């Protein structure tokens, strides 16, 4: 059973790292959107390609035309924080119990 516990612990750690990296990508995308970025820049294209599939469904739920402010990065940020607090912590607790 300790092997399964180690596997779940490793998955939880990797998931936590991936969520942290994605959170920073969202932050960088939000900061870059305050300036007029070059849409042909490969870094800007990468940021848009990686974040747009997550941000666009939230934009459909909360349109920006009413407030003029795009709240989708903040909502994704909160979802990531929830996943880190709930999912990663739960996986780590399961891993500890399996040791």
How would you sum up the major sheet? none
In total, the number of domains comes to 1
| CA-CA gap between termini | 7 Å
Radius of gyration: 17 Å
Q: Assign the structural class, choosing from mainly alpha, mainly beta, alpha/beta, alpha+beta, or little secondary structure.
A: mainly alpha
Roughly what percent helix? over 70%
Query: How many β strands by DSSP?
Result: 0
Name the average pLDDT: 90
Oligomer designation:
single chain
- How much of the sequence lies in strands comes to under 5%
Number of helices: 3
SSE order in H/E notation?
HHH
Report the principal-axis shape. Answer: elongated
Q: Residue ranges: pLDDT <50 for 5 or more in a row? A: none
Q: Main attributes?
A:
99 residues, mainly alpha
Give a description of the structure:
80% of the residues lie in helices and 0% in strands. With 99 residues, it is mainly alpha-helical. It has one domain. It is elongated. The model has no long low-confidence stretch (mean pLDDT 90).
Task: Write the topology of this structure.
Elements: H1 2-33, H2 42-61, H3 72-98
Helix pairs in contact: 1-2, 1-3, 2-3
Write a short abstract of this structure.
The chain is mostly helical. The protein is about 80% helix and about 0% strand. The chain has one domain.
